[in-house]
Amino acid sequence: MGRRPKTTLVRALVLAAICIVLFKFILLPVRVSGVSMAPTYRDHSVNFINALSYLRNEPQRGDVVGIRLTPGGFGSTPRVMYLKRIVGLPGKTVSFSDGHVIINGKSLDEPYEKAACNWNIPPDVLGPTQYYVVGDNRTMPAINHSFGKVERSRIVGKVVL
Amino acid sequence: MKIAIRIALAAVVALAAFWLWGVLFPNPEHVIRKRLTEAAQAASFAPGAGYISKLAGAQRFADFFATNAEASIDAGGQEQHHLSGREEIFQTALNARVAMNNLTVSFPEVSIAIGPDKESATADLTAEAKTSGASDMFIEEMKFTFRKFGRDWLITRVETVQTLQRGGQ
Asked: Which residues of B touch A35 (CB under 8 A)?
């Protein structure tokens, strides 16, 4: 405890409070489960979601985001999230042709996409509050991959690392 | 000193009354949360159970459902399942116990809305299921509908919710 135990105790309490606030409401720790974001994020790797990343800015194409499964009220912290990459922004038309993401008729350049993919998905028009998300690993059949439109309210924040 | 004792006694009586009120008139949300936790435990099973144990476990799980309950499970990459009635749910639970070695089910996130009539409720939740040998955990958003029968809250409908929707859904 040192020579000033009261000061040490106060410091420890402040540090604990900061950690609780930081990791419960701001930087949400996540452990990746599954291979849908490989090779960018590997199975069992640990990361953080910045819950404040979209306070002033809206999500952008290319962002990897945490998506909550259960609708929650303001301030509720999700314990389980999908980790996906945004490829389509609100109002855009998204489709897949021979594995390529097509936005409003133009092929999207995806440098993070390493493996071949043969998905063909018909065009889907996004609503004013909808984003189109998909994992980086598209080597499996499309039916085995969770992807598609998601409401803005479900996007928790952006992956930090 | 007497005043302090009286205040302490009054506090104890108030706490006891509060506890008793909770026991006699439980908050429906708390009851449903407890039912969901128990249902997840009943859906889970350990390896090495005998047939009688599997039968009892499946029955215990089916008892959480109303007789006319319906289940519509559309998990990604899997065949869509529609179950109708407690008996069919019991049979499916029993078949799962026979076919699989073990299963662990949990509901880590639950959001409950009680209906205006206080006799019905919906629970939006995240379901996690894991069986040994499977590489990935099953994670799905689900919606449970409850109805109050007497003092019991029974599940009348279970359905999967597609968090990420594709065209036409």
From this structure: 136
Between 3.30.70.20, 3.40.1080.10, 3.20.80.10, 3.10.450.50, what CATH number should domain B27-161 receive? 3.10.450.50
**Residue A132 contacts residue A124 (beta carbons within 8 Å):** yes
- The pTM score is 0.80
Q: Is A42 in CB contact (< 8 Å) with chain B?
A: no
Measured in angstroms, the CA of A72 and the nearest CA of chain B are apart by 7
pLDDT digits (tens, 9 = 90+) for A85-140: 999 999 999 999 988 999 999 999 888 887 878 889 999 999 999 999 999 988 88
Contact B163 A69 (CB under 8 A): yes
Query: pLDDT of B10-46, one tens digit each?
Result: 999 999 998 888 888 888 999 999 999 999 999 999 8
Q: How far apart are CA A83 and CA A160, in angstroms?
A: 12
CATH 3.40.50.880 for the A27-159 domain, yes or no: no
- Residue ranges covered by each domain of chain A: 27-159
Q: Give contacts of B76 with chain A, Cβ < 8 Å.
A: 143-146
Q: Select from A78, A80, A84 the Cβ nearest to the Cβ of B128.
A: A80
Residues of A in contact with B136 (CB under 8 A): 33-35
Report ipTM (2 d.p.).
0.74
Single-letter residue type at B68 = N
pLDDT digits (tens, 9 = 90+) for B114-135: 999 889 999 999 999 888 877 6
Show Cβ contacts of residue A96 under 8 Å, excluding neighbours closer than 6 positions. A102, A117, A119, A120, A121, A142
